[in-house]
């Protein structure tokens, strides 16, 4: 096992489809976490981390945002192992940030830095928050 892999084969906390048991030829859809939005739950290629992010943002409500760490903690709760330590959620941060950028590029989420939307096609560094897309400005 390399230094960058954790004990279940995932590199740097990013969960890859081959480690989740997702296969393109699978006949059964993946389970979707209850906090996912209805649209995300009905999407055949829906990602569980995306469902968590969209669900948390929807629960927070319009004009509000969530911290990336909230989504990472929810992902750890959903996918973590019994006995994980209190800091295990941190390994989900890179995957949550990656999925948030993907959702923002699709126009399904806004990424905020210092309260302002950022371009998801550019590198994003530092503290960010995630918010629902607003009708008046759309996602960037």
From TrEMBL:
Protein name: DUF3253 domain-containing protein
Gene3D superfamilies the UniProt entry points to: Winged helix-like DNA-binding domain superfamily/Winged helix DNA-binding domain
Superkingdom of origin: Bacteria
InterPro entries (UniProt xref): DUF3253, WH-like_DNA-bd_sf, WH_DNA-bd_sf
Region (Disordered): 1-48
Organism annotation: Limimonas halophila
Biased composition (Basic and acidic residues): 1-36
């Amino acid at each position: 096992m390399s230094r960058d892999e954790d004990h279940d084969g995932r590199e740097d906390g990013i969960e890859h489809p081959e480690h989740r048991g997702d296969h393109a030829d699978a006949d059964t859809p993946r389970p979707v976490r209850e906090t996912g939005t209805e649209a995300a739950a009905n999407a055949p290629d829906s990602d569980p981390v995306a469902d968590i992010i969209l669900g948390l943002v929807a629960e927070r409500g319009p004009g509000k945002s969530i911290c990336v760490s909230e989504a990472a903690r929810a992902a750890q709760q959903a996918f973590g192992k019994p006995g994980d330590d209190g800091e295990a959620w941190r390994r989900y941060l890179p995957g949550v940030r990656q999925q948030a950028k993907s959702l923002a590029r699709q126009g399904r989420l806004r990424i905020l830095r210092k309260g302002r939307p950022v371009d998801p096609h550019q590198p994003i560094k530092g503290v960010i928050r995630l918010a629902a897309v607003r009708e008046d400005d759309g996602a960037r």
